[in-house]
Specification:
Layout lengths: L2 H13 L4 E2 L24 H4 L9 E9 L15 E10 L4 H13 L12 E6 L11 H13 L6 E5 L1 H7 L6 E4 L1 H4 E3 L12 E11 L21 E14 L5 E14 H8 L12 H11 L7 H19 L8 H19 L7 H11 L5 H5 L1 H28 L6 H8 L3 H10 L6 H23 L8 H21 L5 E6 L4 E6 L6 H16 L4 E7 H6 L13 E7 L16 E4 L18 E10 L2 E8 L1
Parallel strand pairs: 1-2, 4-6, 5-6
Antiparallel strand pairs: 2-3, 3-10, 4-8, 7-8, 8-9, 9-10, 11-12, 12-17, 13-14, 14-15, 16-17
Length: 630
């Protein structure tokens, strides 16, 4: 099957079972400074999993664009990618294990409605209990799986492994259902049960693995088992059962409304339909792979690691640039720059010395033209940005080479890498040619420490996927709405948001405008925002049909897709109530999930005034303002 086939069958399957299809959230979360990227299907839905009603109901299904920066170094094997799509279905206090597991199993094995996978190749894992927190094993899921496999004529032998290490010693033992401890088969935002704070929700999960039948690699343990990393088994889906809430005394209580969160890797599921464990041989990579083979004169199977890195990174870069991200030295822009530069180093290894990345990326715009047309529509921008960055990096490499020459016999390989992006293997090769040496192990240890610090920073940014909802952050969020409308009033209606970042210290907005603002324009924008604060305008949330919101002229995020029913926040008029927002008289109307203050007077608490700290260029045709309330 193609990636599009698998995606469509999944959405259709769960639609027939009462689920509403919701669009993918943007790859860069809106107004969420805690995380750089949307990294899972669950992340945009955390507020609803915690109890907030979803406007589309209690049964949801989607395919979510996701990116995991932590996996950059993992790319190169047959299954790890940074960008991917996560198929997901959710029950928000509705059905539970007895419905979820049979549905997923049916989707995977049904030839008419699903993927038609051979059930003999499917293996599952369940939660085996946790002694430290006194959480008991998930015996209910075990019984459900036994019944499902038995109906297919498969003996569903249960093997209790407990931990990954135990699995490496015990191995398969002819089993079909395997239990692991909390590190493998328990979900909460805080990790294992013992680390969960009071009030945190979590529960057991049940993973599904596809057996590609590859020989076991003993480098990954004495025995093979479903959670082994040798490549024989690949996880293709996971049902999380959010069933418990932790009490102040450390015990756990059943939630009154239990949730189901399923996630299945779209590319991995597609690979399973082809019985080929290499996700880079699925159809969405075909055109891009062909470009690399033609330009390098090398076949994919002869340089798979370099091919995989370029393919993965250029797919991610295409979606990034189409989403408004530009190469930079911080945050999302830095990740994009890193992907581009890693791709160029691999292209050099393949002997490609001329510009190639834009041509590779073009294949992804075409491959996703139907599912994500915004990528195809941004083809010219993607080409321009990649060509510009490729040219600049080749100059950077030349600078690194000049710095290398200055070092004489003492080579600082770490500085060359971190400052100039000079590949360690290139430094090693040149030093060897010149009879020079450096402590490669020490440099690698330093690089590992550097990467660990970077990953720790990224992990802190994720913070469970929830945005900071502190009072001052909420005030800045509302001020952000006032600022955008004031910019449109002063600069013209063609001004639209192109990005934002809101913390408890300040707000930042990127907006479409082609020139530097004058002091007079900045002063007028500031005056308008403070005027609206002083007018004490009510801020009202209304759930309505998307078409109705669009007719009202509600602002919405560039490139984002929205469901048929949306959340809209309006500011004003002074006489508005939640029952009668009087949109025709409102000062500002925006698609937004919140949260916000109830009245603009709250922005002026303790005599605070809106002040613009800086106005500067963000990228071509985009300006940036940083502002505070003080």
């Amino acid at each position: 099957m193609t990636v599009a086939d698998v995606r469509k069958r999944y959405l259709d399957f769960f639609t027939k079972r009462g689920h509403t299809v919701i669009p993918s959230a943007p790859i860069v979360p809106e107004n969420d400074p805690t995380t750089l990227f949307t990294s899972s299907g669950m992340q945009p839905l955390v507020p609803y999993l915690l109890g907030q009603p979803h406007p589309q109901g209690i049964r949801l299904v989607d395919s979510q664009m996701s990116f995991r920066a932590d996996d950059v170094e993992e790319v190169g094997d047959n299954r790890h990618t940074t960008f991917f799509e996560m198929l997901g279905n959710w029950s928000l206090g509705d059905y539970f294990k007895q419905e979820q597991l049979p549905w997923v199993f049916d989707y995977l094995t049904s030839a008419t409605e699903g993927l038609g996978l051979d059930p003999q190749k499917l293996y599952v894992t369940v939660f085996g209990g946790d002694a430290e927190s006194a959480m008991i094993a998930d015996s209910e899921s075990v019984e459900i799986w036994k019944k499902l496999f038995s109906e297919k004529g498969i003996a569903a032998t249960f093997v209790e492994l407990g931990t990954e290490e135990h699995g490496n010693e015990v191995g398969m033992q002819g089993g079909r259902i395997f239990s692991y401890g909390a590190k493998k088969n328990w979900w909460s935002r805080a990790g294992v049960p013992s680390k969960m704070p009071a009030g945190e929700i979590g529960g057991p999960d049940s993973e599904i693995f596809y057996d590609f039948g590859l020989p076991h690699n003993p480098a990954f343990g004495k025995e093979c088992h479903p959670n082994c990393d040798c490549g024989r088994f690949i996880e293709i889906g996971n049902s999380v059962f959010m069933q418990f809430i932790k009490q102040t005394d450390g015990s756990f209580k059943e939630l009154p409304k239990r949730n189901v969160d399923f996630g299945g890797g779209l590319e991995r599921l597609t690979a399973a339909t082809r019985n080929n464990p290499d996700v880079f041989l699925t159809d969405v990579f075909d055109a891009a792979r062909g470009v690399i083979e033609a330009r390098s004169g090398t076949k994919y199977e002869d340089a798979t690691r370099s091919f995989r890195i370029i393919l993965d990174h250029m797919r991610a870069a295409s979606f990034f640039i189409a989403s408004g991200i530009r190469p930079a030295n911080s945050e999302q822009g830095y990740v994009l720059r890193r992907l581009i530069r890693r791709s160029l180093r691999e292209a050099d290894k393949l002997g490609i010395k001329d510009a190639v990345l834009a041509e590779v990326a073009e294949g992804f715009g075409n491959a996703y033209a139907e599912a994500y047309p915004f990528v195809h529509n941004a083809a010219q921008t993607i080409r321009e940005e990649l060509e510009k960055e490729e040219t600049q990096f080749r100059k950077t490499l030349a600078q690194g080479m000049r710095e290398f020459e200055k070092m004489g016999n003492t080579i600082d390989a770490f500085m060359l890498f971190t400052t100039y992006g000079f590949p360690l293997e290139l430094t090693e090769e040149i030093a060897r040619e010149r009879g020079l040496t450096f402590d490669k192990a020490a440099v690698q240890a330093k690089m590992t420490e550097h990467q660990a610090l970077s990953r720790a920073g990224a992990a802190q940014k994720f913070a469970g996927g929830l945005a900071d909802h502190a009072e001052q952050t909420v005030r800045y969020h509302t001020a952000h709405h006032l600022l955008l409308k004031a910019l449109q009033s002063v600069l013209g209606p063609d001004v639209h948001q192109r990005g934002s970042n809101i913390t408890s210290e300040r707000l930042r907005i990127d907006f479409s405008y082609g020139q530097k603002m004058t002091p007079e324009q900045l002063a007028e924008v500031t005056r308008i925002v403070n005027e609206k604060i002083a007018e004490a305008l009510p801020v009202t949330r209304t759930v309505m049909q998307k078409e109705e919101a669009e007719k009202l002229g509600a602002e919405h995020e560039f490139g984002a897709q929205y469901p048929d029913q949306v959340s809209v926040y309006s500011v004003g008029p002074a006489t508005a109530t939640s029952a009668d927002p009087k949109f025709s008289e409102a000062y500002s109307i925006e698609f937004c999930g919140g949260p916000h203050v109830e009245n603009t007077r709250e922005l002026g608490a303790n005599g605070a005034q809106f002040k613009i700290l800086k106005e500067e260029a963000s990228s071509a045709g985009v300006r940036r303002i940083k502002a505070v309330l003080e």
